[in-house]
């Protein structure tokens, strides 16, 4: 019998190899995020240009110019005499007196039947161009009797549109139909035009006339989208277009002088409609200046579509090309294609009813259908922007402009970098004074630097411009990040040293519960600035939110793991 010595507990423990940091999935994600950030930022140095990167800088850091434009328009609610309004529209178009014989509405007053009489010559195609496609003409000698089937909403929109020479778009609201006049229209002028057709402005519950200068929020946002789309097509993707209040838009042109900025803002996109001839060959039909108005995407019989109206010349041109190419007889072999800056944005054949109608008369009012699903809705909304081809939905007036010298922008950039470095050094000094240990200071500062790098990587990846408010947000993230790292460190160091594993897990869990609560509070506090878009403060809010999320989800859990390992290696454990 041989007796062997039983190994002690300590000897058993010494035989177990502790897992390395790289085996932790959080460490791997952290390293991957750092590498991706470096790839996105792409820092480099050249003897000619000095230090550079893939980061985009805003106006205040790069220099350049800015424009502020005001959206001209008015929103009203009104009522009119239907017969007089219809006669006024046709009278202005043909230049001859028009009398009203009869104006009748159906039982629910949603549909009108108006009979007019004139000695001026008028054709069905002319009525179609005025938007009265549902109409008929009877000629008796030298007198024309016109029967129009329409709505009060259409009459008011058409009448005001013809008088102001601009789009007038009706919107259904809980309080009734609002009419948005998309050009400058003071209250006195509007009331005088309404009086000519026995009309007037409606009043609210307090007896105030329903009239306000400006445009609806939807129109303001559409204008911003069109400007952004326009700059994208010009290769100027990094130009931010943001709203200031309800009726102003601010555009920053970093690195662009003021004269060039004004030329860019006034340059429309090139929109063209072409018709398929044979194979892939197409023939020009019209340009974007022949589109007089573009409606709001809507759904009808399950199909999403974008309505638009052609000018008289545009409608005649489309009819002529459709007849000459044979599209009126075989529409499926002769599709209509739309191009924006020579890029195809839509294509479809004429509907059988449209092809048949074009044989006898031009059509002004069209609908471009896109499909039935949610993607079709988005396509219809995008087509609305394309159809405008850089022509804004409302008239705009330049109310402010300015320029930041490039050297001054470079000075701001250098000052921002110095401010960031000074804040990091100040934080490092305070941390070292508190703990007096390099093994705590180095991981803490390295974590803060990594968070800044990941924020910059995110900005480079999404093409987001860095301006002074964004830099301020990064500095704020450094401060809040250090606060969180101090909480982790204090919880890890139990009475100045690492506690047993069970106690450590309990305390680190408590530390992160505090950190997540603080992060949630910060994100909630900053969210209104992002949603409501208060100018430059939006950049500050986005930077802060992105920085906090990067910190709590990636960097700070890694710091909690690293600091424990470092302190154990330095003999801080039990």
Automatic annotation (TrEMBL):
Q: List the InterPro entries hit by this protein, alphabetically.
A: SecD/SecF_arch_bac, SecD_arc, SecD_SecF_C
Domain of life the protein comes from: Archaea
In terms of SUPFAM superfamilies, this protein maps to:
Multidrug efflux transporter AcrB transmembrane domain
Q: Membrane-spanning regions, if any?
A: 414-432, 444-464, 470-490, 511-534, 540-559
Main location per UniProt? membrane
One Gene Ontology cellular component? plasma membrane
Q: What compartments host this protein?
A: Cell membrane
Limits of the Protein export membrane protein SecD/SecF C-terminal domain: 397-553
- Membrane topology per record: Multi-pass membrane protein
Record keyword Membrane present = yes
Keywords for this entry? Cell membrane, Membrane, Protein transport, Translocation, Transmembrane, Transmembrane helix, Transport
Is this entry keyworded Cell membrane?
A: yes
Provide the GO biological process annotations: intracellular protein transmembrane transport; protein targeting
- Protein's job: Involved in protein export.
Q: What subunit structure does UniProt give?
A: Part of the protein translocation apparatus. Forms a complex with SecF.
Q: Which family does it belong to?
A: Belongs to the SecD/SecF family. SecD subfamily.
Protein name, UniProt field: Protein-export membrane protein SecD
**Organism for this UniProt entry:** Methanohalophilus portucalensis FDF-1
**Organismal lineage:** Archaea, Methanobacteriati, Methanobacteriota, Stenosarchaea group, Methanomicrobia
- The gene coding this protein: secD
């Amino acid at each position: 019998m041989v007796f062997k010595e039983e190994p002690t507990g300590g000897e058993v423990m010494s035989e177990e190899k502790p897992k390395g940091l790289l085996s932790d999935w959080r460490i791997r994600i952290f390293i991957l995020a750092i590498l991706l950030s470096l790839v996105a930022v792409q820092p480099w140095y050249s003897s000619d240009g000095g230090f550079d990167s893939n980061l985009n800088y805003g106006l205040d850091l790069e220099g350049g110019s800015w424009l502020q434009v005001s959206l001209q328009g008015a929103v009203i609610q009104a009522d009119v005499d239907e017969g007089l309004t219809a006669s006024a529209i046709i009278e202005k178009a043909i230049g001859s007196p028009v009398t009203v014989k009869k104006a009748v509405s159906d039982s629910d007053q949603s549909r009108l039947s108006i009979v007019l009489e004139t000695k001026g010559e008028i054709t069905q195609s002319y009525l179609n161009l005025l938007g009265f496609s549902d109409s008929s003409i009877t000629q008796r000698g030298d007198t024309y009797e016109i029967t129009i089937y329409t709505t009060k909403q259409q009459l008011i929109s058409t009448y005001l549109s013809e008088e102001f020479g601009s789009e007038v778009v009706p919107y259904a609201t809980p309080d009734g139909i609002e009419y948005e006049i998309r050009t400058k229209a003071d209250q006195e002028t509007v009331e005088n035009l309404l009086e000519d057709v026995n009309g007037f402005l409606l009043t609210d519950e307090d007896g105030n006339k329903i009239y306000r200068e400006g445009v609806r929020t939807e129109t303001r946002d559409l204008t911003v989208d069109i400007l952004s789309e326009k700059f994208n097509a010009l290769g100027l993707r990094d130009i931010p277009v943001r709203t200031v209040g309800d009726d102003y838009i601010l555009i920053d042109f970093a690195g662009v002088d003021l004269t060039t900025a004004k030329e860019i803002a006034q340059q429309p996109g090139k929109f063209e409609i072409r018709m398929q001839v044979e194979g892939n060959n197409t023939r020009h039909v019209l340009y974007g200046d022949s589109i007089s108005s573009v409606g709001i995407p809507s759904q009808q019989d399950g199909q999403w579509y974008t309505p638009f109206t052609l000018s008289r010349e545009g409608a005649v041109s489309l009819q002529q090309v459709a007849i000459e190419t044979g599209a009126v007889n075989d529409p499926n072999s002769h599709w209509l294609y739309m191009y924006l800056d020579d890029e195809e944005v839509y294509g479809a054949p004429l509907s059988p009813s449209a092809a048949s109608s074009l044989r006898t008369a031009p059509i002004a009012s069209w609908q471009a259908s896109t499909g039935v699903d949610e993607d079709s809705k988005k396509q219809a909304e995008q087509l609305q922007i394309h159809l405008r081809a850089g022509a804004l939905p409302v008239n705009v007036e330049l109310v402010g402009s300015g320029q930041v010298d490039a050297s001054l922008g470079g000075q701001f950039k250098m000052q921002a970098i110095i401010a960031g470095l000074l804040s990091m050094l100040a934080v490092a000094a305070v941390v070292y004074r508190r703990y007096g240990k390099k093994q705590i200071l180095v991981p803490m500062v390295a974590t803060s630097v990594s968070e800044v790098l990941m924020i910059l990587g995110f900005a480079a990846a999404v093409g987001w411009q860095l301006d002074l408010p964004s830099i301020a947000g990064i500095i704020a993230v450094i401060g809040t990040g250090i606060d969180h790292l101090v909480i982790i460190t204090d919880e890890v160091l139990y009475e100045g040293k690492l506690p047993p594993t069970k106690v450590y897990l309990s305390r680190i869990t408590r530390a992160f519960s505090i950190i997540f609560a603080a992060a949630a509070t910060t994100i909630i506090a900053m969210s209104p600035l992002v949603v409501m878009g208060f100018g430059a403060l939006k950049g500050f809010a986005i930077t802060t939110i992105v920085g906090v999320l990067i910190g709590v989800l990636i960097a700070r859990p890694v710091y909690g793991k690293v600091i424990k390992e470092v302190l154990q290696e330095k003999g801080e454990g039990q």
